[in-house]
Specification:
alpha+beta; four-stranded antiparallel sheet; seven-stranded antiparallel sheet; 183 residues; 3 helices; Immunoglobulin-like
Length: 183
């Protein structure tokens, strides 16, 4: 009976992952995605979480080549196309880095704290459909490039399927049983 214990645990984890209801999105921002493109070598990351119809975000921009001014979510547009601002992401706060090796960066997120950050944002059904279809992008501006320093398309992060999780659990169960027989 002890050897069958992992099966319910894996199944519970698989079902729990699907039942959470929060979708995660991510954007990798570069200068080459801005319209028109620029040669900025900085790579920034933005994470978004859609829980029901509420969108939260967190963006970090390495403090390498420019001072971040503001950010915004634009849509609906495909890559290399322009679209109006949907949500202003507010100002970015400077983070000096750490002794653990974290580099200096600018960050913005939700909820807003003073002049930094914005949101969370309540989305309409149409906006949720556009977001899930990858038709939104995030753009960060600077004082020297107020029309866009970095840009990245906001894309859904795929979740592992129940079958994938159960397959992994089955493989683990097989390995565990084999190990028990050999040792």
């Amino acid at each position: 009976m002890k050897t069958l214990l992992p099966i319910p645990a894996v199944l519970a984890c698989a079902l729990g992952a699907q039942a959470q209801g929060t979708l995660q999105f991510r954007a990798t921002l570069t200068g080459s995605q801005v319209v028109p493109p620029n040669g900025d070598p900085t790579v920034a990351f933005a994470n978004f979480w859609l829980n029901g119809n509420v969108l939260d975000f967190y963006i970090t921009v390495p403090a390498i080549t420019f001072e971040t001014d503001r950010g915004a979510i634009h849509g609906a547009a495909l890559p290399r196309s322009l679209a109006p601002v949907i949500f202003d992401l507010g100002g970015f706060a400077f983070q000096p880095g750490s002794t653990l090796g974290d580099p200096p960066a600018y960050a913005s997120g939700s909820p807003a704290i003073g002049p930094f950050g914005a949101g969370p944002f309540t989305l309409s059904t149409e906006q949720i459909n556009q977001l899930e279809a990858g038709l939104w992008y995030v753009e960060v501006t600077s004082f020297t490039m107020p029309d866009g320093q970095l840009r990245g398309q906001i894309l859904l992060v795929p979740e592992p399927s129940i079958w994938g999780l159960m397959g992994s659990g089955g493989l683990l169960f097989w390995w565990y049983g084999r190990r028990k027989r050999m040792g």
